[in-house]
Design goal:
The structure holds two protein chains of two kinds. Chain A is α+β, with helices and mostly antiparallel strands. Chain A is about 35% helix and about 15% strand. The N and C termini of chain B lie far apart (about 50 Å). Classes of the chains: A alpha+beta, B alpha/beta.
Chain lengths: ~100, ~375
């Protein structure tokens, strides 16, 4: 990602999803696409709650997963890019509306 | 890479992750897919239907149905247990005045849902409203491209025209439409015409079955009189209108195939709730697990009665007494539920209807193999 990440990435409200153990299933109903997420991706998906910033998300991941900060940052950026491209999360730059 | 298998190159639908989730869902018996029969009342009277309410008894049936509040409670419980997919079926779902309220709640609770309907009550307003609630699919039954044949099966004059109008309405609102056909004696020759019509209508897909389920009230002879004979099944399976996958078979010795092949798995990662709140392992296997009016769905699901635990113990064909020595096992698609209804008891025994169908498939397989060898 060449530009700085915008502040927050709320999940689109109408996107159905469920967590199963540590993995998750996310469904793009309009496109008819099922996205199975592994445990790390599922955690990022959960953290895209509209309250946390990118830095907040990276901070949580760094505490929960055994990987170098640079790797976590790079991969989180890529995955959030993919989520936004798939229109599963939105990009929010205004003031926070939820706690966190 | 930290996220290997989840999000590379824009394709985070990795098969290995899906497989892991499927295995976990099965091991944990997460009810991922639930079938909710909202009513048995219907504005059609299809000759082969397994669950229709008799004319004149609709009001009585409606009083017994789960209320909106009860259904909402069940949906909330299902969501908490990890259920993602819900199918709303009937009867005819649109005869319930609160149908859209139920769907709205399902959407709020994050379900992906499918709707089975005959389409004849799907006005422009209802089609628009349904589209706004984003169903994954709306699935409609069509029995023939010939209106007279279709209407004779539904026993409602004009039902074909109303069905086609419903398809157009749904399509115009961008809804993903499936057409489905039960092939029986009255419409045996209809499949090519229906498939051509489906292409013309540009529906998402068309699927068919030739299994006519016995009525769940125990009347096994009513619908079964419309079932195709083995010779008729051979005629059907030989048709060019069928997709190739219908001829897939498992090869090898019967005992080996029986150990390898899994049976269907009712009550493993999904089940059925009837309009009156009774939970069943699937649509067909009508052994009650409990009733959501008396206990929470979680209690029912996690504490199944002995008969259901016995059902859950059957995972492979080799767990059944007759399958390991059956020469047709590679072609068999037995249904524990239909077998239970047909036999009225010993569902582990040979499912004779499935055997008839397997025998027809085996005959067609040999005909095709012989023809290919002769080329």
């Amino acid at each position: 990602m060449s530009t700085p990440l915008p502040d927050r990435y709320p999940r689109r409200r109408q996107v159905p999803w469920r967590t199963l153990d540590t993995e998750a299933l996310v469904v793009d109903v309009s496109g008819g696409t099922l996205y199975p997420l592994n445990s790390v991706a599922a955690r990022i998906w959960e953290l895209c709650d509209g309250a946390r910033s990118f830095e907040d998300i990276v901070h949580v991941l760094a505490h929960e997963f055994d990987a170098e900060d640079a790797v976590i940052r790079r991969d989180a950026e890529r995955f959030i890019d993919e989520l936004t491209a798939a229109r599963l999360v939105e990009i929010a730059t205004g003031p926070r509306t939820e706690g966190g | 890479m930290l996220f290997e298998g989840c999000a590379q190159n824009g394709g985070f639908g990795e098969a290995s992750v899906m497989q892991l989730i499927a295995v976990k869902a099965e091991q944990r018996r997460t009810p991922l897919n639930m079938h909710l029969e909202l009513t048995y009342r219907c504005n059609e009277q299809c000759v082969h239907c397994y669950c229709v309410v008799e004319h004149g008894k609709e009001a009585e049936a409606a009083k017994r149905e789960l209320t909106y509040e009860e259904i909402v409670r069940v949906l909330d419980q299902l969501a908490e247990l990890g259920c993602l997919y819900v199918t709303f079926s009937g009867g005819e779902v649109l005869v319930r005045r609160d149908f859209f309220d139920i769907v709205e709640h399902a959407r709020r609770r994050g379900f992906v849902y499918r709707v089975y309907t005959n389409g004849i009550g799907l006005t422009e307003e209802r089609a628009r409203r349904l589209a706004a609630l984003e169903p994954l699919t709306v699935e409609l039954s069509i029995f023939s491209a010939d209106a007279a044949v279709h209407d004779a099966i539904t026993r409602v004059p004009g039902s074909f025209d109303r069905l086609i109008a419903a398809v157009h309405r749904l399509k115009s609102h961008g809804v993903r439409v499936y057409l489905k056909t039960v092939v029986m004696k009255p419409n045996l020759g209809s499949l090519p015409g229906v498939r051509a019509l489906a292409r013309e209508l540009d529906v998402f897909t068309h699927v068919f079955t030739c299994e006519v389920s016995p009525r769940i009230d125990g009347d096994i002879h009513g619908p079964s009189r419309y079932q195709l004979t083995e010779d008729e099944l051979v005629e059907l399976y030989s048709s060019d209108a069928l997709p190739k996958e219908n001829h897939d078979v498992f090869g090898g010795a019967p005992a080996d195939i029986a150990r390898e092949r899994t049976t269907c798995g009712p009550a493993v990662n999904g089940g059925c709730i009837d309009p009156y709140g009774t939970v069943f392992p699937c649509i067909a296997f009508r052994v009650p697990m409990g009733n959501v009016r008396e206990r929470s769905f979680r209690d029912i699901w996690e504490g199944p009665p002995a008969a259901i635990r016995d059902l859950l113990s059957v995972e492979h064909f080799s767990d059944l007494p007759e399958c390991s020595s059956c020469e047709l096992i590679g072609f068999c698609t037995r249904c524990h539920g239909d077998n239970l209804l047909e036999r009225g008891g010993d569902w582990k025994a040979c499912h004779t209807r499935a055997r008839t169908m397997a025998s027809a498939k085996e005959r067609v397989y040999r005909i095709v193999a012989k023809a290919e060898k002769g080329r």
